Amino acid sequence: MTAPAGAAAASSVLPAPALEVRDLVVRYGRGRKARSSPPAVDRVSFEIAPGETLGLVGESGSGKSTIGKAVLGLQPPSAGTVRVHGQDITGMSLRERSRRVADLRVVFQDPYSSLNPTRTIGQTLVEPLRLMGVTGAEALQRARSGLESVGLPGDAVDRYPTQFSGGQRQRIAIARALVCDPKVIVLDEPVSALDLSTQAQVLNLLADLRDQRGLSLLFIAHDLGVVRFLSQRTVVLYRGQVMESGPAEAVGLTPRHPYTLALTAAAPVPRPGEQAARRNAREAAGFGAASTASPGATGCPFVPRCPLSTDVCVEQRPPLRLIDQSSTACHHAERVPSL
Amino acid sequence: MSALPLDAAANTDLDAGRPGRPGRPGRRLPYFLRRPGGVFGATWLAFVVLASLTAPWWVPYGVAEQDLSNRLALPSADHWLGTDPLGRDLLSRIFSAGAEPLLAAGITVLVAFGIGLTMALIAAERGPRVERVSSRLAEVLLALPSTILLLAVIGAIGVRIFIVMAVLGVMISAGVYRVMLGVAKSVRQRLYVDAARVNGLSSLRVNLVHVLPSMGTVVAVQAAQLYGIGLLIVAGLAFLGFGPAEPQPSWGFMIQDASSYVFSNPWLLVPTGVVLALTVVAANELADAIASRGSVARTTVRRRRSPARVGATGSADPRPADPGAVLDVRDLHISVDDGPALVTGVSFALQPGRVLGLVGESGCGKTMTARSLMGLLPDGVSVSGGSIRWQGRELVGVSEKDLSAVRGRDIAMISQEPMVALDPMFSVAYQLTQPIRRFRGVGRGEARQIAAQLLRQVGIVDGERVLKSYPHQLSGGMAQRVCIALALTGEPRLLIADEPTTALDVTVQAEILSLLRALVRDTGLSVVIVSHDLGVVADICDDVAVMYAGTVVEDGTAAAVLDEPAHPYTQALLAANPHVADGEPVPTRLASIDGTVPPPGEWPTGCRFASRCLFAQEQCTQRFPSVPAHGSGSVLCTRVEELSRADVTWMSAPTTGPAGHETAPATAQPAPTVGVSR
Amino acid sequence: MLAYVARRLAMAVGTVLAAVLISFLLVHATDTSPGAVRLGPGGTPERIAAENEALGWNDPLHVQFFDYLGGFLQGDLGTSLVNGGSIAGDLADRVPVTAFIALFATILSGIVGVALGVTAAVRGGRVGQLITTGAGVALSLPVFWVGIILVYLLAIQAGLLPATGYVAFADDPAGWFRSLTLPVLALTIGGGAIIARTANAGMREALAQEHIRTLRAMGTPEWRVRYVHALRFASVPVVAVLGIQFIALFGGSVIIENLFALPGLGQAGQAAAASSDFPALVGVVVVATVVVVVINLLLDLVVAVLDPKVRTA
Amino acid sequence: MNRSRTRHPMALRRPTLMRAGVAVLATGALTSLAACGGGGEGGGGASSQSPSDTLAIGLDSDPAPAGYDPLLYSDRQFEFFAPLYDALFVTASDGSIEPSLVAESTNNEDNTQTTLTLRDGVTFDDGSALTAELVKANLDRRSDPDLEAYGALAEGQAAAITDVTVQDEQTVVLTWAQPQATPEANLDGTTGIIVGPAGIADPASLETTPDGSGAYELDEAATTRASTYTLEKNAEHWNADAWDYEGLDYRIITDPQALANALVSGQVDIAGQLKDNAINLVESQQSIVSQGGTIVGFPVTDKLGQTNPAFGEEAARLALLQAIDRESLVNDLHPGARPTVQLFPEESAGFDPALDEEFGYDPERARELLAEAGYPDGFELDITRLGQPEEDLVAIQQQLAEVGITLNFVAATSTDQVFAAVRTDPVLWGPFAVGANPEGFIAGVVYGGFMNMQGAQEPEVEQALGAALGSTGEAQDQARQELNRALVENGWFIPVYEDFTYYGYNADKVAEPPFAGANNYLVLSDVEPAV
Questions:
Q1: Among candidates A287, A311, A286, A236, which has minimal Cα distance to A44?
Q2: Chain C residues inside the 8 Å CB shell of B381
């Protein structure tokens, strides 16, 4: 881990987290309908230390991308705070953020729609620099070196996105995040649209950059394996709530929440013998089908699918509590079987 | 003067030239000038505009110059288009009349877009609340009888055509708004807009730099169409007498005038009518040409298949025919008609009750192979050689009719995207009972019972509710279950599953895979499953064929191929997978493969993987046959034994680091130098 | 579904109110007054002022507006400044003419356009090219030009159809049909072309859908794939365009009514505008809007029936 | 209240697409009427299978734009009102004036008093009977300036009636201000129409409901105003037998081409008035009747030069007269018409061929006259048109430009503006049906009517007019000639050509329809089915 950067962090005794999310709630829509339906993100808190990578894992509808948007300011939160290096940016406009906390950037999932096809790579990369007041020539120079740092030739600045493959585009998107020399990058499913071989390249690149530059990454993904590769810590989300969080190894190998277990067990491994054993274990655990009815308003959201659930799970939302190295929101965490 | 609606804009390709298409036309002609319609449209419009604006300097006669003794003349050397009822030269009058409608229609377009487009951009940016208000307003404006209102406006302010057309622009702006709102909203969903916002661009610049340019095609199409409509309306008003006062000519009034002579001098209707119609046609053709971006060669939806050259290529497959196989594919070649091959020399056999996986990266021909098994290749793509034998019967080259007898009944298919694989317009019950009645010859009531039973079979508990639902009311997993139930309606012997779980969550994927496995176990069904996920293959497949660049590079039983991969490509795929075995530490680096799969038509001779292979040598660029491996399987690598002897695998080989040298596709022409802001 | 209908109804009412308001404001924006119109140029300023007072022209605008609305709700659109007749009565005679022409032209455009557009999409190749090109030309032809030529060819030269006029259905159903044929035909050429293009695009899009592949993979007969499934999918945009088309045809009836001497709304509007017959003008706009809104409401219901997403939303 | 109370009749163009226009045709001693209003109505339907006992008549303009008070209109509209209302006298097809509501009439010796004995058994739509009181009540409206039909009967006008006395139930005595040569002629056609007591008591009711004693009644249910008027025969009518048809359908088709089309393709049996362009078409497939006596030209309205000083100069007006090349215009655009500089038609007693020689086309003379008037470089004049100007005007515009006179077209946005032109434009334009009674036209329109809103006076004209109206025989003919010449010499009216009024008819259905003498409207009661 590298030393924290930023004045706010330097002035405090303990290094302030690079990114801190506290009791975040996001509701979509307005009016009665929105208030009566469960929020997309429900009281989520986490922090990322400088140089640390936090994996945010969950299936569709878990709210992971919404959290990313709320952190970036693309989706106003209904409650809670977002701090970067101790500075509260929750209510800041996007312009203000970029002026005052230029060190928060993003890489999106889809390498095809994340680059404007009508602009050259150079124009795309220079755009944030110019806003930061960097002069033209220097901005272009930084764009070139940014491209080189992700393994692309500097003269790519004159080309258009359509002239690059998916993996290359994702590198460009990373370069765009990097040119501003940010401290925190939100990675929203950056490899899920890529083929296996390309995915490996991009993951390697991200790992290298993180280590070289001491970046803090908020890595949003649906694939526990990918998250485990890149993150130090993992937060598992289900229906907008944190189910479990802890060191990536611990969460991946010894899940303390039935949902984490279900998630881990469901991911197939490419070794037939081992996969057969995992499958049998999973089937024996008796998870409910994903399509079963929605959970009640109170209690644990995983109740309808959970083989361990009891009355208390229906009535009471389990608080996060620390078991071994992980925090888990399960009343029966101690009874969760190992894989 | 019908205020024509904007042509349904839905068909305009927003994602003009998404992947793989040269982004900028460079110094070449704009793309729309490469179509005959576009050439005609642009040429004629340019001609009419130029000729009309310069009319005062070149027309042979003054607009008011009369020659009563030579009235209503047919075309002659003196009067190329003839003369009007006062003996005035038609050519001179037509082109002198042009400037006003051409400008006035332009004003309508400008005003309509100025308001409609701006409102659309604002509504798209400000979200649902603003949008609700502005959309309601637009709907109201759209429902007003614009022509009658226009008459009222003329009644109020007189024949000030430019103002009147501006008012029309205001009324039409509602239509523009409606079309543009959809486009703007979809553009705003593009991630680069979000990226620019995160970068802190002001909303004006986000709109100007990122949103508007991406809407350019649609804007151009709509504007050109609207321009044509505007021309018709200006002419219509002039036809009613609301045009420039005589002796100044106007197209509409010239036609009105000509209508009085339709019996005695029908020619008079021709020149003006044709020039007006041609100009409107030109605007529309130009719009069509602009809209054609992204579909330069419009493939037609023909369902005729070019007959395959059955057995035309000598079988390179050394293996004998497998008598026990239900499906025996030999030396299958698939290619784009008059284009490159997509799949070459693919052979595999499938035993009853077994699951075969076709695995590989995208662009390797897996899906084409799978689709060819049912004769469902896309238009313009066909089987160009080899054979597909289904229970001993050749399927290549048979008629569409015979194929449809096989489809659903013998071979069924489930696809990658369950949410769009069901017809959104019909209930689940209808979509299930329809084939059940056809396949099983039962009545409506019984079909419904069978449908409910099938749903239970695919693990749907509340079958009755699902039967009554429509596809959009189902979750992805539920939809895939319904799709599987649908595939089972004909009690097929073979199921082709094209990436059946890719779009689903991992827990749902596990459920669907379990379901498929249960079906195979219970019914003896054979399955061909296409997947890029080796984990899925490990989970469900008995056999596996690894495909790379249109051919099978390794096949055998799943256990053999995945546990002891022989081909470097298979090894590399496994090594790049971040899913480590339980208990193993996470690697700090993943193995990667440089570059990308070469596109069809650019395959090298010899090993197609050679350019990316860590072990490639000179010999790999020569042709070589596949060698037997994994018992009944094979591997297509000339160095396989050598590597195996040396005990070298991809996993153990050093990786090349992050700076892979990928070859970008389609970089044939140099990109224009667009100045990076200085 | 109920909520959907209620929402559409509310929209319809709003549209009519907007029509009243806009035409009301437009009338008030002119530089003449109803008194002046009624009295003609002989009216002295005093007489005009008295007349205006009597007509309520000097009342506050909102009072006039709500008076008008009150009358409108009771079916009273006021009396003509020109001939003193009941505007509602006059328009009641005229609405059917315009409405039937617009309706038939819309329906015929729909039938012809869908047939051609679907053929072009299904057949493709040269036939498709021919149809799409033909449609491109047809929709560019000015309706007044087409109308003149149709009259010349079919009515004057061939003597097949009446050139002008309207026969009430009650008087002579066959004559009624014949009297509508030419105007409907003239409108259908352009309207059908637009529908053909929409249907063609819709059908192409439909045939490219994943669910169509599913159907083919199930061995579904091709006619069923095309004409039950793809066509239904394509019909939603077609119906939407038909709605717009009806508005356009209805609003654009002026020319066609002049060309064929039809006693419809367009003529009434034109006459009212030319003679500054304000109440008549407002009446025409309002009545035209009501018809358009009602037809659109019906089409919205058709869309709801066709498209379960709308129905179940 | 009636919109056209003070409407000034004049030539108007349909606010619609057609150039036709036509609108004002004044005849007899009566003022003309603007067949304006309602504008642009096209008309009526046509069933090719209409019952043979219905006569379908196509008209190029709405005959009742301001409602059903016949006194608001001129003789041109008599074609429409004759079946609904009866008049005191009517002009027969041979030109003779015949009693209609009048059983008998006598004049005193010096032609200053006329005694009318009314017909028995006449009833009105409101149920009441014809009485002498009613005739008086009708004629007592003559001072209402809005009633066009009474233009010449009002006080101070050429045929002013000073007193109407009821002698008994059936007898009424009229006293004229001046001796009248043919008093019956003053009371025929539209002027002679008698409106029923309900209509007289409440003229506003006539806006929507006719109240006449005619042989037909309006079928209001089947009528769409300004488009289709449907009339049904009243079998009880005293003269029912004279009318051959059970029903009359009037269809208003303002587009001249559409009107011709309607006739050719059989939707109407009779169509009037046809435009020159349509004649060929109609002649090739149907039949045509025509009637001369329509003078097309420019009435000068600003003889005092109030809005356009040039027109205060007689020489300037005459320059205009002589700057128009009528021969070429007529040869090319109106073959068959007759170029003329005089208001009196060729067939009328006051016609003088010498005038055409003397004041014919002479651009040199026109330039001299301009110089004489103080406008050596010419002058400009505005003329207001609703919609596009007619071909004739466009052609004349160029001819006038040759001598330096600039003719500008002002586009009107409403009929109101066109009506106002009688005060704002120096000249008007249109076809005027001078027809059978030129001196009546001059009295009611040119001198005492809307063409002289300024009240310009010219003793020469006034004197000749009085003589023409009051005398008989040769003295009258002499006076007519003098009147004609005086008008020309003073440049009060600038005629261009004498035209025909064309009616087309379907010879398979109807026999040739007769005009009312020298008038340019038809006698519908004499229209008979084809044999």
A1: A236
A2: none
